[in-house]
Amino acid sequence: MRIVDVRCVEYLGALPGGEPFWRDRLRRPVDVYPEFAARGPQQLPELPGGELEVRQIFLHIDTDEGITGTTAVLSAEQAHAVSAALRSVLLGADPLAGERVWDLAYRSAIHGRAGTGMLAVSAVDCALWDIRGQYFGVPAHVLLGGPTRDTAPVYASTLGDSLDLDDVRARTRELRAQGFGGVKWFPRWGSNDGHAGVDKVVRLVAAVREAGGDDLEIMLDAWNSWDIPFTVAVARETEHLRLRWIEEPLLPDDSAGLKSLRTLVGGRTQLAGGEHEYTRWGIARLLRDDLLDLYQADPHWGGGISEMTRIGALVSAAGRQFIPHGQSVQCNAALTFASSPALVPEMEYLLRLAPLYQHFLAEPIRPENGVIHAPRATGLGMRLNDAAIRDARPLS
């Protein structure tokens, strides 16, 4: 079997309108500047008639045996990198020879070992796992050694939800009723908000604890936007609320800061991160200095499913745990159901983004009563739902 075409296609669809898709947004590193902190969430465009526009780029890799592997969702920059830098490497290659293709892609783009270049390699690798699963007639997790279980628990990520405390309590009760045992929130406040910002974070966590009960796992995602004093203050003042982890409190390159936090937080909560790190070498640097309790590399960003298996081995050998960041439910399910529950205890499900990123898929993966069942679709289950596609535009 050989690769005969590599295509990036932009699909257009729509969601019902009537209210904004995003109620709020996460804090961003640029929010240290007031003019950026004041900006609200970037909404989906509104179409004539009031519907919300869904516009997404997919990667399709075609083979001479009629099998097509698919990855979604790519940025325009990723799509350009695939077309400009990787297409010539892929054409004529054997899609079953995953190690060779990954190594060729990595070596052919020496400046692509991180950032957009590695995101492009990741997209290709995931599409190739989709091909392999279809070729052998099994879900990707079976090729990776699974299934290790029939179901996996998922925690709910509330990215985009309202941070009004009454809304937080109502949302938390709703998620508990749906069977979720853990909830992650995304505070808008950070170091430039001073102690008032710390107080707002504490009140947020207290509201979640009040509504969710004593056995709910509560996590916070700072998205690389806090500093050491703010993180330490939040950890100290939420200790009685039993916060499970603080995620990405510092900028990804601030290894010295993370090392300091390991001492200063002092076991009050766990430190999680790694989603904005790339490849086994990037994660190995974090592990070497024991900077995190929990690792969250993303298969869509950090090297694809192939590289996540190598990262998982490193994390396991270091005695830590690995919960891949939830950009792709399909890729994360493949990894989760092929991994020991001791290494990958659960999955992340982004309540707003996961359905959006699966808008054009015929068989989206959704949690039921707080768990996800092992996928049965061959490959990664990336078959398109033609009824959701209103227009399609090939990208050159």
TrEMBL record:
Coiled coil: none annotated. Gene3D superfamilies: Enolase-like C-terminal domain, Enolase-like, N-terminal domain. Its cofactor is Mg(2+). It comes from Amycolatopsis taiwanensis. The keyword Transmembrane helix does not apply. Residues 165-268 form the Mandelate racemase/muconate lactonizing enzyme C-terminal domain. The keyword Metal-binding applies. Keywords: Magnesium, Metal-binding. It holds the Pfam family MR_MLE_N. It comes from the Bacteria. This is L-rhamnonate dehydratase.
